[in-house]
Amino acid sequence: MALIDLATEPATLTGQGVGSHLRGMVSSDPHRRKPPLTIRLCGPRGFCAGVDRAIQIVVLALKKYGPPVYVRHEIVHNRYVVEGLQAKGAVFIEELDEIPADHRDAPVVFSAHGVPKSVPADAQAKNLFYLDATCPLVSKVHKQAMRHARLGRHVLLVGHAGHPEVIGTMGQLPDGAVTLVETEEDAARLPLPLDAELGFVTQTTLSVADTAGIIRALEGRFPALHAPAAESICYATTNRQEAVEHAAPGTDLFLVVGAPNSSNSKRLVEVAERAGATRGLLVQRASEIPWDEVGAISTLGLSAGASAPEIIVDEIIAGFRERFDVSIELAETAIETENFPVNRELRDTPLTAVDMAFVNGIA
Ligand code: SF4
Question: Which of 12, 175, 317, 324 sits 20 to 30 Å CA-CA off 361?
Answer without folding.
Answer: 324
